[in-house]
Amino acid sequence: MExxxxxxxxxxDPTRRQIIDLIVSKTQNLNSIAExxxxxxxxxxxxxxxxxxCGLITIEQQGRERYCRPKLEQLDEVNHWISRYxxxxxxxxxxxxxxxxxxxxxxxxxxxxxxxxxx
Length: 119
Fold this sequence. Notes:
By secondary structure, the chain is mainly alpha-helical. The protein folds into 2 domains: 7-70, Orthogonal Bundle (Arc Repressor Mutant, subunit A), CATH 1.10.10; 74-116. The chain has helices spanning 7-11, 14-25, 30-34, 41-53, 75-116, and strands spanning 28-29, 57-62, 65-70. A hairpin with a 2-residue loop joins strand 2 (57-62) and strand 3.
């Protein structure tokens, strides 16, 4: 049974996120990518395979070299998912801000009233 990988699984790992960052700025071969990490070339190849399976990169053969190119359209799925929760939290944070402002105004009002009522 084949395991389905998704974009969330790909970006969950910091090494894979770093690989994406590397190839976004410049298409690189596997050896160039591996030079940026303190892990084996084989481990980098596993990460690249996962990124390929998730559809975040493509590999193009050029002579004897295999070059990794970004294919980041899949990140739209992540952006869509995050945007739903971003709107939720922005609403809640706006409500919290209003509540805190109300408390601050009430404290200021009480403080002013307290000064005038003292003998």
